[in-house]
Amino acid sequence: MRALVLDRPRPVGERPLDLRERPEPSPGDGELRLRVSACAVCRTDLQIVTGDLPPHRRSVVPGHQAVGVVEVVGEDAEGWRVGDRAGVTWLAGFDRTCRFCRDGRENLCEAATFTGWDRDGGFAEAMTVRADVAVRLPAGIADREAAPLLCGGVIGFRALRLSGIQPGGRLGLYGFGASALQAIQVARHWGCEVHVASRTRADLERAASFGAASVGAYDDPPPRPLHAAITFAPVGSVVVAALRALDRGGTVVVNAIHLDGIPAFDYDDLWWERSIRSVANVTRRDARDYLELAATIPIRTEVEVHPLADGNEALARLERGETAGAAVLVP
Ligand SMILES: [Zn+2]
Ligand SMILES: [Zn+2]
């Protein structure tokens, strides 16, 4: 099979991904082999490829938003049959035994492993995945449209859950990239009034076209205090701006793996039971529930399809902010 292999992280301009022939991977106990039909490209892939995230292995196939068909079912891999359609997310494995895994928060497991970082991912014609983390995909979403739902979409959905936003509530989205673009569709489906803040005019115009009730710069107060807010911009001052926009009892969920320092703020901004929390990775339940909801709404995603061989170009376009919607690699 052909796969895009990363041997050594380096700038995208040096074409770090190498397309090469590899033996078909054989699934271990409890694993499946998928014939990959599409794999979306995420900013985290870019961070792995360029070395912003330190390598976990000497050589790895990136890609953690893959869709494929089960081709081989390994020993003791329960619940799957050859020919089933499956999705793969960032969470590749966990220990099942710690207190987080036991109560359904495997996203917090200290032994968690990640697709396309700790084990080979979906920038390939075939890959293996643990059967207990593979996601069943509802009918009615094409493979290429399903792929971008599997990372940014699911984490945006988890952020919505953690924010405590209720149907009809007033929600703020700070930053308006691929993840927020899906979150606004869910929030509108729930009948929420959505305020979108961003630096760029193009983002605000797109937000309005997706039903935002109000838009503004990060520091502009929304027309009315928000019941909850999610920040997508990896900038600490935006977290404070969102906090100041909250009503009493509201929560800011910070959807960022890295954040520069959060500037000091007055305790009055946090008083009245306001809170700030982060969102880290996703659980299997988030993925399952989100995919079902996405098929029902249905969530619209714009995809830019590239052949697998053009993986370096797809990453370069993402890095330059040129991608129209989500980039998807197709073997
Ligand atoms: Zn991702
Ligand atoms: Zn665990």
Protein described:
This protein has helices at residues 43-50, 99-102, 143-146, 152-163, 178-189, 201-209, 236-244, 267-270, 284-296, 311-319; strands spanning 2-6, 17-21, 31-40, 66-73, 85-88, 91-93, 113-114, 126-130, 135-136, 170-174, 193-197, 214-216, 226-231, 246-254, 275-278, 303-307, 326-330. It contains 10 helices and 17 strands. The strands form 4 sheets. Strands 3, 4, 5, 8, 9, 16 and 17 form a 7-stranded mixed β-sheet that branches. It has a 6-stranded parallel β-sheet with strand order 12-11-10-13-14-15, sandwiched between helices. Helix 4 crosses helix 9. Strand 14 (246-254), helix 8 (267-270) and strand 15 form a beta-alpha-beta unit. By secondary structure, the chain is of the alpha/beta class. It binds zinc ion (2 copies). One zinc ion (ZN) binds at residues 94-95, 98, 100-101, 106, 109, 111.
Mean pLDDT: 96
In N-to-C order, the SSE pattern is EEEHEEEHEEEHHEHEHEEHEHEHEHE
Whole-Å distance between the termini?
A: 10 Å
Oligomerization state: single chain
Overall 3D form:
globular
Work out the number of β strands: 17
Bound molecules: zinc ion
For the largest beta-sheet, the strand count, sense and barrel status come to: 7 strands, mixed
Radius of gyration, Cα only, in angstroms?
A: 20 Å
Question: How much beta, percentage-wise?
Answer: 25-35%
Which percent range fits the helix content? Answer: 25-40%
Uncertain runs are none
* Classification by helices and strands: alpha/beta
Count the helices. How many? 10
Q: What are its keywords?
A:
17 strands, alpha/beta, 25% helix, single chain, 331 residues
